[in-house]
TrEMBL record:
It comes from Erythroxylum novogranatense. It comes from the Eukaryota. The chain crosses the membrane at residues 21-41. It holds the Pfam family DUF604. InterPro entries: DUF604. Keywords: Membrane, Transmembrane, Transmembrane helix. This is Uncharacterized protein.
Length: 482
């Protein structure tokens, strides 16, 4: 909890000594002195005079740097599930969960029946949610399921693990990249009130609930002090917002009343989209991938695999290097006028023309909007529409395998999923990429790509062969990709 604002004794005494007529003037002057005093001496040390708001983002001079950096053991996951959905979604949770390493629980509506027992040690242990029929506000509640979900924060708090620094809310169909999550949470001061999450891709969804809301399927983080403040106020807050029918919206409303707003992170993905999301995943910003969601609402991530196999396959690349997962790197083969766009661990595209990064970073609109009846604009980002123009349509290669090379690099290989079935782009010469069947991408191993540092690459291709190579490297100073 934040400590109360206190005025140092000396200043209080000064106030008392002042004659009444000049009181207002003195308040103004003292206020100014106090402000200057605070600004000069206490900006980096808020203990003696705690005027700093507890939820301001870490400024680099906070006290949390005295404690060891946040690691996985400081993060408590709250996986919201139910017996009905756990049955087929547990495989999604299992694919990122690290037994005996990641911490947290699956929260269920009921005691597991025989078919779930014995409970495997490869899953998070379970907790049964509080019986919300006991809440004073229960008769007024509009959605019991959603209140049970939001109540999981309090249920987790009651488990009583004070060594945690963060609570992460998520669904049973959320996929996490936990090493990246640790890196991103390290940026924030966990001793303050911090709320980190992501918007929906759908403008309509954000507008309907709140642009200041972390979508729970994508996962959102609450610093422990914030989770504590929320827990202490939750039952009253549920009563206040009994008419809300989405748990994340209820949580966001309660947090807003505490005075907290959302810190957006680019790597958190709600995936409020339908069909083929490969266009989105192939233009991921160079920001750590944190989560993916809604696998049952979209096509399998890889064309020749089912949903579950696709996730297993993606996680193979993640085991070698989470820091580069999906991140888009662009380079050119000038001899043939080709552009290469790599989405590390997922896909590689070749365009038979030179297209600047400003264009290629916009996702190809391979997907459909979440809300089928609404009018455009649908998405929170710009897209490129699909065309049959040979110069704008990529040859698409999907992640196939990953290995270490003898000289200690990571080699990911991408293979063509289907022929492009278009003539070559004549505008930039007669260099068809049809013969290319495989792309090999080399990246450094053993160290994570630094947070939000942009990488560049070089193409290695011998004309007339069917394999192209791409080497990741640091960008040169002021390097322009166009
Ligand atoms: C900073 O943290 C240390 C260790 O956690 C604690 O002993 C100290 O009192 C804190 N100082 C301030 C000014 O908050
Ligand atoms: C986790 O730890 C427990 C107790 O130490 C052990 O019995 C169990 O096999 C471990 N599970 C895994 C998957 O390593
Ligand atoms: C491209 O051409 C194919 C075959 O003629 C057609 O079915 C498809 O709708 C076209 N796509 C676009 C985006 O124009
Ligand atoms: C590359 O494309 C440009 C037109 O954009 C063209 O003038 C040039 O000849 C092409 N280069 C090759 C090697 O084909």
């Amino acid at each position: 909890m934040p400590s109360k604002r206190t005025i140092p004794n000396i200043l209080q005494q000064k106030f008392q000594e002042l004659p009444t007529p000049s009181l207002f003037k003195s308040i103004a002057i003292n206020g100014l002195i106090l402000f200057v005093f605070y600004d000069f001496f206490f900006h980096c040390d808020n203990r003696p005079l705690d005027l700093s708001l507890p939820f301001i983002k870490s400024s680099g001079c906070d006290n949390s740097s005295n404690s060891p950096p946040t690691d996985l053991s400081h993060i408590g996951f709250i996986v919201i599930s139910s017996l009905k959905t756990w049955k087929h979604r547990r495989a999604y949770t299992e694919s990122w969960w690290r037994p005996n390493v990641t911490r947290g629980y699956v929260f269920l509506d009921k005691e597991p029946t025989q078919q779930f027992l014995p409970w495997p040690s490869t899953f998070p242990q379970y907790q049964i949610n509080y019986d919300i029929t006991k809440l004073r506000a229960y008769p007024k509640i509009v959605s019991q399921v959603q209140v049970r979900m939001v109540h999981s924060i309090l249920d987790m708090y009651r488990v009583g693990d004070k060594s945690l620094r963060w609570f992460i809310m998520c669904d049973d169909d959320t996929l996490f990249f936990v090493d990246n999550l640790v890196e991103v949470l390290q940026k924030y001061d966990h001793t303050k009130y911090i709320y980190v999450g992501g918007n929906s891709e759908s403008i309509k969804s954000n507008a309907r609930y709140s642009f200041d809301m972390g979508f729970g399927g994508a996962g959102y983080a609450l610093s422990y002090p914030l989770a504590e403040a929320l827990s202490k106020n939750l039952d009253d807050c549920i009563e206040r917002y009994h008419y809300l029918y989405v748990s994340d919206h209820m949580a966001q409303s309660c947090l807003a009343d505490i005075g907290v707003s959302l810190n957006l992170e680019k790597g958190i993905h709600q995936i409020d989209l339908h069909s083929d999301i490969s266009g989105l995943l192939s233009s991921h910003p160079q920001s750590p991938l944190l989560s993916l969601h809604h696998f049952d609402a979209i096509d399998p991530l890889f064309p020749s695999k089912d949903r579950y196999e696709s996730i297993q396959h993606l996680m193979k690349a993640a085991k070698f290097d989470q820091s580069r997962m999906l991140q888009q790197t662009i380079c050119y083969q000038r001899e043939t006028n080709w552009s290469f766009s790599v989405s590390w661990g997922y896909s590689t595209h070749i365009y038979e023309s030179i297209i600047p990064r400003s264009i290629l970073r916009k996702p190809l609109e391979t997907f459909r909007p979440w809300d089928r009846i609404s009018r455009p604009p649908h998405f929170m980002f710009n897209t490129r529409r699909l065309t049959n123009n040979s110069c704008e349509t990529p040859h698409v290669f999907f992640f196939n395998s990953v290995e270490y090379t003898p000289d200690n690099q990571v080699l990911t290989t991408y293979v063509r999923s289907s022929p492009r079935n278009l003539p070559h782009c004549s505008a930039t010469g007669s260099h068809s990429a049809d013969p290319i069947s495989r792309i090999q991408v080399f990246s450094p191993s053993g160290k994570r790509k630094k947070y939000e540092v942009i990488e560049c690459c070089d193409v290695e291709y011998e004309v007339e062969t069917n394999v192209a190579g791409v080497k990741m490297r640091s960008c040169m100073k002021d390097e322009v990709i166009a």
